[in-house]
Design goal:
single chain, Rossmann fold, seven-stranded mixed beta sheet, 7 strands, 17% strand, globular
Length: 223
């Protein structure tokens, strides 16, 4: 198969985070719950919009999680990009923190030492980060099978971004659980079949690949 034909089969996944919420500002747990927009939410969206324009990113489809903050962010970009349909998927939901919804992160750290330490720690009435990773990675493989040769924009959550990049960039998952993911993050993953072959950060860098491996901002091929 020629190089041109192979290039046509590459799926490009554009990962962004939902708009900033009041709980993001106050340091409260959301998980599968939701929170109103923060006052500065639009500034971040305009930044991401400019990044997409600068890099000539024109998605063929937009996916969001089933959570309101993700769906509304997807609606914002769909309007800007002239895309009429948004597909929502529960598999892209943030981690389910269960009964910890609305608790302050400070309180959770004091009462649950496993918080963002152990990927297998199951939150009360919720799930673990490992369970989150299984469902969202499986969903991305579904996208790869149905959107070959296309550019897909996914409006996700910090936990989902960490889970996906840990898996596809082969990073130690536990070490990424506290990684800050900006609301101005724009990640680009290229897939040749099930294999991620390249990764770029076009927005505000979040440092998933350290200076010792690749300097930020960066673009690299994955061996």
């Amino acid at each position: 198969m020629g190089q041109a034909s192979r290039q046509l089969e590459i799926m490009r996944l554009i990962l962004i985070r939902h708009y900033k919420t009041q709980f993001n500002v106050s340091g409260q747990i959301m998980g599968w719950g939701d929170s109103p927009q923060a006052d500065e939410w639009l500034e971040d969206m305009l930044f991401v919009e400019q990044v997409l324009q600068h890099h000539s990113i024109h998605p063929d489809s937009i996916y969001s999680s089933a959570l309101e903050r993700s769906r509304q962010t997807a609606k914002y970009f769909a309007t800007k990009l002239g895309i009429t349909e948004i597909r929502s998927a529960r598999e892209l939901n943030e981690i389910n923190y269960g009964s910890l919804f609305k608790k302050s992160k400070k309180w959770v750290k004091e009462h649950y030492p496993g918080y963002k330490q152990d990927p297998d720690f199951v939150y009360p009435q919720g799930e673990s980060f490992s369970q989150l990773q299984v469902r969202c990675v499986s969903f991305i493989h579904t996208l790869i099978n149905t959107h070959s040769g296309q550019t897909i924009l996914c409006v996700a959550h910090a936990g989902v971004v960490r889970a996906l990049l840990s898996h596809f960039l082969r990073l130690e998952y536990a070490a990424q659980l506290k990684r800050k993911v900006s609301h101005r993050y724009v990640g680009v993953l290229c897939f040749d079949g099930d294999r991620c072959t390249a990764y770029d950060e076009c927005g505000l860098p979040s440092g998933f690949v350290t200076e010792g491996e690749v300097a930020l901002p960066y673009s690299r091929k994955i061996a």
